[in-house]
Write a structure and sequence with these properties.
It contains 23 helices and 20 strands. It is α+β, with helices and mostly antiparallel strands. Strand 4 (83-85) and strand 5 (91-93) form a beta hairpin. Helix 12 (361-367) packs antiparallel against helix 15. The protein binds adenosine-5'-diphosphate and magnesium ion.
Length: 697
């Protein structure tokens, strides 16, 4: 029996390996770079590179790659082998410090949103020493940032690191005001809960929609759905259990803290949650987790679907981004403290988040905008597209008393005078957790639930970190000038609550009445789709925030705007083309063949005996023929809309046209196809149904 503790992190060039394989000077100097961002000189890099290479070779690696996260949302790698020819005709294995620090992948095929003209196609990758190198297969993977030659970020890691730095800068200013001089750095941590579906590989391969788009574009509701709620936390099937066991082992070897796994609400849906860690590492790990899930599934005759909405009418998949802020001493700044002093500080950070989420609700919505996620947000299962915060009754009451200078009626009456009163102990009641809120406080962290299952968590955390950094900056600017810290603080938080309490909502986010209240009464923004929200990334206040906090330059921001919309358009055009293809080449012929069989049967019966009525056959053939006519018509309409799409000029127009025309035609085509499925003999239907995919029957 292998013990987990024996192989956990065995494929990671982590602190333990570094300590063992580097001289103590090199180790100290690398550590300084990792912990404090100190510059690394080439001699140190050379020593690290050699140690890394020797360790990698000892663990079976032959190649290395700079592993990065271009704006496609997945990870990219270009492998180089370690071999270098030796004069005697043999090879030696080499890897230098400069190869470790910098790489030059041919970047022309990665999206750049116009940031990099093709004639200067090359970009470069730069080592991120804060995220450990690891071995995947036979390749040493070095986590890197990806930039253009002019230094513009072409990836998701660079802005994420910048946003962490921004938050660190501002949070330290606040901590100093509270007399906290020993804290060296403040970081955000994330634990992303990943949802996914597992389906049988053979069935998957029979569905071109799943292969090309990751979701089903057709499919009638099966007789049984998720009505019985019998899958949630239900017993895990043996095939799935074997998959999970194998997956855990792979993840553990990579030092990924896979912790919890369970069945989710929908049939065939599951969830994996790691133990939280520093945000950029959590992001790298989540990317790796998604990749490895797919690889391991293949070994078990399964396919892992990460799409946000693989099946209509069945719950979709998201990623709950559990987020907190803590110091290098391990103090969680979002945890209510034991002393009045701690509590004042806690309330400040809490209010900073409330202000940030209200001021930049649109950016949070934008950070999770994809074609796939649009299908999930707003359905009655995922948080709505409207951003709001759930605090829970107790914390809500505390804020109310702070706002109104009234006593807080908790277990013991306390007046919420900051720095004097102790916060009441909150009961962390798990049964009362609000599952419908997009942004919920869960005791000592916030859970942002709008992130899509297939998406990188980088964007959500970039926006979150940046927005909170901005609240903290405003607070610090004010408090640093204040003659009396305590009273200024009290006044400032009171104002925050007054100004921003509209974002706090403890009710049911799935309720239609909430949409009315949120938009009409509270003036919160509601952007149901990607084309609705993404253009707002260029709103003045958002550009000011993101350039002011040095997260993006304006050209970088414009590039992202282009890429997100382009991505949206491309994925839906692929879906539309796949629908046309499947409807024309599979669905229409199947229905026609079945109708033909019925017609032949009726004719044969009539030959046998004129008196046989054949009412069923006749009626069914009539219905099926009407449906095929309808399908053919809808195919034409969809094709027409795709042709018109070509005459749109900007990506903004294109995405709006897709939202208003193409998607409508796609939905219209699906209706008669799904109806035909319900009345076509099973053996004629050209691909596995929802029942077969979800229940194996
Ligand atoms: P659930 O939300 O399912 O009840 P938990 O609250 O225990 O489960 O944890 C969910 C996720 O939140 C896990 O990935 C966990 O590591 C993460 N998490 C727990 N505490 C924190 C924290 N302080 N900061 C960030 N993430 C956290
Ligand atoms: Mg959760």
């Amino acid at each position: 029996m292998k013990h987990v503790s024996d192989y956990f992190g065995s494929l990671v060039f982590d602190d333990r390996v570094m300590k063992a394989r580097l001289s103590s000077e090199v180790y100290q100097s690398l550590k300084k770079t990792i912990d404090e961002g100190a510059k690394l000189d080439l001699s140190v890099a050379n020593a690290v590179a050699t140690a890394m290479k020797d360790w990698a070779i000892a663990n079976g690696a032959t190649h290395y790659t700079h592993w990065f996260q271009p704006l496609t949302g997945i990870t990219a790698e270009k492998h180089d082998s370690f071999i270098t020819p030796a004069p005697d005709g043999r090879v030696i294995m080499e890897f230098s410090g400069s190869e470790l620090i910098k790489g030059e992948p041919d970047a022309s095929s990665f999206p750049s949103g116009g940031l990099r003209a093709t004639f200067e196609a090359r970009g470069y990758t730069a080592w991120d020493p804060t995220s450990y190198a690891f071995i995947k297969g036979k390749t040493l993977c070095i986590p890197t940032a990806f930039c253009s030659y002019a230094g513009e970020a072409l990836d998701k890691k660079t802005p994420l690191l910048r946003s962490m730095e921004a938050l660190n800068r501002q949070a330290l200013r606040i901590l100093r005001l509270f007399g906290n001089d020993h804290v060296k750095c403040v970081r955000t941590s994330v634990g992303p809960e990943q949802e996914y579906f597992l389906v049988d590989r053979e069935m998957y391969e029979k569905r071109r929609d799943l292969i090309f788009t990751g979701r089903t574009l057709f499919g009638a509701k099966p007789p049984k759905g998720q009505e019985l709620d019998d899958h949630y936390f239900g017993a895990i099937k043996p095939t799935v259990a074997a998959f999970m066991e194998d997956l855990n082992e792979e993840l553990w070897k990579l030092g990924i803290l896979a912790k919890t796994e369970h069945n989710e609400v929908a049939p065939a849906q599951h969830e994996l949650a790691p133990i939280y860690t520093t945000t950029n590492i959590a992001t790298d790990h989540n990317q790796l987790t998604m990749e490895i899930m797919q690889k391991v599934a293949a070994r078990h005759g399964l396919v892992c679907l990460l799409h946000e909405k693989p099946f209509a009418g069945v719950n979709g998949s998201g990623k709950h981004n559990n987020w907190s802020i803590s110091t290098d001493e391990g103090v969680n700044l979002l945890s209510p403290g034991e002393t009045p002093h701690d509590n004042a500080q806690f309330l400040l950070f809490l209010c900073a988040v409330i202000k940030a989420v209200d001021d930049y609700q649109d950016l949070l919505r934008i950070s999770v905008a994809t074609a796939g996620n649009d299908l999930r947000l707003g359905a009655q299962e995922a948080p709505p597209a409207i951003v709001s915060i759930f605090l829970g009754d107790e914390l809500n009451a505390v804020l109310e008393s702070l706002e109104n200078d009234t006593p807080y009626c908790g277990v013991k009456k306390t007046k919420m005078k900051l720095g004097v009163d102790v916060l009441p102990k909150f009961t962390k009641d798990n049964t009362d957790r609000n599952r419908t809120s997009p942004f919920a406080f869960t005791g000592n962290k916030f859970e942002f639930r709008m992130v899509g299952s297939a998406d990188s968590i980088a964007c959500a955390n970039i926006m979150l970190n940046s927005a909170v950094a901005e609240s903290l900056r405003v607070y610090a600017d004010y408090l640093e000038q204040a003659p009396d810290f305590q009273s200024a603080l009290q006044e400032m938080l009171k104002n925050t609550i007054k100004e921003h309490k509209r974002i706090i909502f403890n009710g049911n986010g799935y309720d239609d009445a909430w949409i009315q209240e949120a938009t009409l009464k509270r003036g919160l923004s509601n952007y149901p789709s990607t084309p609705d929200c993404v253009p707002h990334i260029l709103d003045r206040k958002n550009v000011e925030l993101l350039t002011g906090q040095k997260i993006y330059t304006e050209p970088e921001l414009r590039a992202r705007y282009e890429i997100v919309l382009e991505n949206y358009c491309k994925s839906i055009v692929i879906e539309a083309n796949t629908m046309v293809d499947m409807a024309e080449k599979e669905i229409l012929p199947a229905i026609t063949a079945y109708a033909m069989e019925l017609a032949k049967t009726a004719a044969a019966k009539k030959v046998l005996n004129e008196q046989i009525t054949c009412a069923f056959e006749c009626e069914r053939v009539k219905t099926l023929s009407a449906l095929t006519d309808e399908i053919a018509l809808k195919i034409q309409e969809l094709k027409k809309s795709l042709i018109s799409l070509k005459s749109t000029e900007t990506v903004c127009e294109e995405s709006a046209f897709i939202r208003d025309q193409v998607l409508v035609k796609m939905r219209e085509l699906r209706v008669p196809c799904d109806e035909a499925e319900t009345i076509t003999a099973r053996k004629y239907w050209p691909f596995p149904t929802y029942g077969e995919l979800l229940f194996g029957v």
